[in-house]
Amino acid sequence: MYGTIARLQLKPGTEAELHRLNRELAPAVPGLVFEYAYRMDADPEVVFLVIGFTDKAAYLANAANSAQQARYDQFRVLLVSEPEWHDGEIPFAYPPRE
Q1: Percent of residues in the chain assigned helix, strand, coil, to nearest 5
Q2: What does DSSP assign to residue 29?
Q3: Taking the model in full, what pTM does it have?
Q4: Is the preceding omega at residue 44 within 30 degrees of 0, hence cis?
Q5: What angle do CA 34, 38, 41 make, to 5 degrees?
Q6: What are the DSSP E strand ranges found in the chain?
Q7: Adjacent-strand bridge partners of 50
Q8: What is the pLDDT of residues 16-61, one digit of tens each?
Q9: How sure is the predictor about 96, in pLDDT bands with cuts at 50, 70 and 90?
């Protein structure tokens, strides 16, 4: 698997909209395996997204897709600034995924 961890600084009061968009748009993302959101105790406006794809090719194809840019534009208006992206291979998961 391959994916990204993104640090998001939400505008106040936008978390519910972020989750609504994720529920609505995630099923249309080819190769998406999982997505988790973590709200930070120290600052509830900071959310880390952990996103996994079947493989790097699926991740890169999604990143290059114009439909993904349109989805991203909907998310971006909820954020104070650009996300911090940290991409990489997911060498293992528990429980294991086949």
Answers
A1: 35, 35, 35
A2: S
A3: 0.90
A4: no
A5: 170
A6: 2-9, 32-39, 46-53, 84-89
A7: 5, 36
A8: 999 999 999 999 899 999 999 999 999 999 999 999 999 999 999 9
A9: confident
Query: CB within 8 A of 13, min separation 6: which ones?
Result: none
Pick from 19, 50, 48, 20: nearest CA to 33: 50
Token pair in block for residue 1 = 């698997």
Instruction: Report the residue count for the chain.
Output: 98
**Rounded CA separation 51/55 (Å):** 12
| Structure-token pair, residue 26 | 């995630």
Sequence ranges of the domains in the chain? 2-89
Task: For residue 30, say if its preceding peptide bond is cis, omega within 30 degrees of 0.
Answer: no
Q: How far is CA 40 from CA 16, 19, 44, 45, 46, in A?
A: 15, 15, 5, 8, 6
CA distance 47 to 17: 13
Q: Please state which of the four CATH numbers 3.40.50.1980, 3.40.1010.10, 3.30.70.100, 3.40.50.970 is assigned to the domain occupying 2-89.
A: 3.30.70.100
